[in-house]
Design a protein that fits this description.
It is found in: Cytoplasm. By secondary structure, the chain is of the alpha/beta class. About 30% of the residues lie in helices and about 25% in strands. Strands 6, 7, 8, 9, 10, 11 and 12 form a seven-stranded parallel beta sheet that branches.
Length: about 240
């Protein structure tokens, strides 16, 4: 069954209105009709629902709650340097499928890409749409929040709000006594929220590394190979899934 996310509280009478892109998808793409079954997610809970009417908006009636656990047991926010091209869209889509809780793009000192403030709303809206569609496709109950890109200083200011902060650092990968990511993940079972930080394609500067260490971040290797900017977050989320699920 097709899944749709609807904002707002669960109505007492179970009657839900779907409009905009969701209504168009049901009526034009799915050729929906009264009596069809869909899944509606509200307040991070999924419900089987029956379509009651399809024009001009879609009205559906919530029925049985689906209780299957589909979210990662730990909330992992990905903070990554702005990558070139459409790589941020790829990270958004695939990281959502892998269980990411939120995405925080950052402008670091060596970032090749600079965020165009005049296009910020449009670009962020595009990423949020990608996250929503990926969450529907992967049958999640949470749509990752896509933050507007922030400065490195703003990243540091976010750190106190997390139970743990992990930095994937390429110099660790080159070290003979590197900290294994598997060992790092095993130390986090008592943590509820984790900020996983990845540098830009040019890497973090020495000053940024020093400031992250001073802020209490743990540094780790993702293995002996150097991963691309769009690969590293997906590798890390897969490791969290393997360890916790």
């Amino acid at each position: 069954m097709q899944r749709y996310f609807v904002e707002g509280p669960v109505p007492a009478n179970g009657e839900v209105q779907l409009s905009g892109d969701d209504a168009r998808h049901i009526t034009k793409v799915m050729r929906g009709a009264p009596g069809d079954r869909i899944i509606i997610v509200m307040e991070e809970k999924a419900y089987e629902a029956a379509v009651e009417s399809v024009s001009p908006e879609v009205t559906a009636i919530l029925q049985t709650e689906i209780t299957a656990q589909v979210e990662l047991p730990v909330k992992v926010t990905i903070a990554c340097g702005l990558p070139k091209g459409d790589k941020l869209e790829l990270i958004t889509q695939k990281a959502t499928e892998l269980g990411m809780h939120a995405l925080l793009p950052i402008e670091a000192e060596r970032s090749i890409v600079k965020w165009d403030a005049s296009k910020a709303e449009k670009k962020t809206g595009r990423l949020r749409k990608i996250a929503k569609e990926a969450a529907e496709q992967s049958h999640r109950t949470h749509v990752p929040h896509i933050h507007t890109p922030c400065s490195f200083q703003a990243l540091l200011e976010h750190i106190p709000s997390f139970d743990a902060v992990i930095v994937a650092y390429e110099d660790e990968a080159r070290s003979s006594d590197r900290t294994r990511f598997a060992d790092t993940v095993k130390r986090l079972y008592d943590k509820d929220s984790i900020l996983m930080v990845f540098g830009p394609e040019g890497g973090f500067s020495e000053a940024e590394v020093s400031r992250l260490r001073s802020a209490g971040a743990l540094f780790t290797s993702l293995g002996p190979r150097i991963l691309r900017a769009e690969t590293a977050p997906l590798y890390a989320l897969s490791a969290f899934s393997y360890e916790y699920e």
